[in-house]
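Query form — protein Corrinoid adenosyltransferase

QUESTION: What is the three-dimensional structure of this chain?
INPUT:
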Amino acid sequence: MKIYTRTGDEGKTSVIGGRVMKDDIRVEAYGTIDELNSFVGQTISVLVRETTVDWVDLLEHLTLIQHELFDCGSDLSYAEPIPEKMKVTPVMTERLEALIDHYEGQTPPITRFILPGGSEPASLFHVCRTVCRRAERRLVSLAAEQDCPEEVGKYLNRLSDFFFTVARAANARLGHLDVEYERGAQVFRRGS
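ANSWER: The structure tokens for Corrinoid adenosyltransferase are given below.
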């Protein structure tokens, strides 16, 4: 099988149910999810290399998330979503909420906004968070113009919260303090 097909040479690509321009808002939405999945893969590679801490739990969760991001892309690839064929379910979003609660318990109290960064794993989790937010914005744009599976948006919204939480947990595991945004007010209720 050849990897190239030449069918996209004219600037169009296939979606389930037709062909669209490669810059179509639907393609932009699932393309951003694909980009996010690549950053998750990079984060996994860094965690595997970072041996000072046990990352087995996060590696397992991140691999599952990569599969679920493919599910998100699959659901968005329908020109007109068919409810019974959608793969993203409320259970997936609920699982993320449980993980957020679990990892939040591993972080110190937070009262102010923090700067993205700290350790290398935390920095990559923040990159995942911001790309996830961009994917979510692309999805909102898509939903304003075309039919769009609602559960994908809920999943992405929760996923960005997950990445924020595990960025903080990674810093805590590695002994790095989060750097607070110094000109910010106290905005979080969870304090000391």
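ADDITIONAL NOTE: Residues 16-174 form a domain with the Hypothetical Protein Ta1238; Chain: A; fold (CATH 1.20.1200.10).
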